[in-house]
Automatic annotation (TrEMBL):
<feature type="compositionally biased region" description="Basic and acidic residues">
    <location>
        <begin position="127"/>
        <end position="139"/>
    </location>
</feature>
<dbReference type="InterPro" id="IPR036894">
    <property type="entry name" value="YbaB-like_sf"/>
</dbReference>
<dbReference type="InterPro" id="IPR004401">
    <property type="entry name" value="YbaB/EbfC"/>
</dbReference>
<feature type="region of interest" description="Disordered">
    <location>
        <begin position="111"/>
        <end position="150"/>
    </location>
</feature>
<protein>
    <recommendedName>
        <fullName>YbaB/EbfC DNA-binding family protein</fullName>
    </recommendedName>
</protein>
<dbReference type="Pfam" id="PF02575">
    <property type="entry name" value="YbaB_DNA_bd"/>
</dbReference>
Length: 150
């Protein structure tokens, strides 16, 4: 076994540290621009979130004025969840490029809003109470009531 030259070892170690620093700076720069955006199905409400899922913009079109406040709230929450998952997917992709499939990546995934896994096994967001609500007119509802015993 050949003896290790301390100066050479220190030089190699310094190069590794510099490379790690550059990778960290690249990741920081890429993650800084990550965000997600989603709209309600009718397109009246659009939300934007940053990489951590924090709401950064909310656009409500004037046509939404006649909507029930609970409908607006439900649309905002649903769009926010979709936008968070979009941003989470981008974060996971960036981090996969830097740390590969590793415990560090699993930690990042665990920190994502809505339990994002990014491997196709993510559960769909449950429908909100408003989306599950039967909104048929009373005559239709009582003529053909829902099957509550199923």
């Amino acid at each position: 076994m050949q003896p290790i030259d301390p100066d050479q070892w220190l030089k190699q170690y310094g190069a590794k540290i510099e490379q790690a620093k550059q990778h960290a700076e690249q990741a920081r720069d890429q993650l800084g621009g990550v965000g997600g955006s989603a709209s309600s199905p009718d397109g009246l409400i659009t939300v934007t979130v940053n990489a951590t899922g924090v709401l950064t913009d909310l656009q409500i079109k004037p046509e939404a004025r006649g909507m029930d406040p609970s409908e607006i709230a439900s649309a905002v929450l649903t769009a926010s969840s979709k936008a968070q998952r979009d941003a989470s997917g981008r974060v996971v992709q960036i981090m996969t490029d830097f740390v590969g499939d590793s415990p560090a990546l699993e930690f990042v995934k665990a920190q994502m809003p809505n339990g994002y896994k990014g491997d196709g096994t993510d559960e769909e967001e449950p429908k909100s109470e408003l989306e599950r609500k039967d909104t048929r007119p009373d005559d239709d509802y009582f003529t053909n009531p829902p099957d509550v015993m199923a």
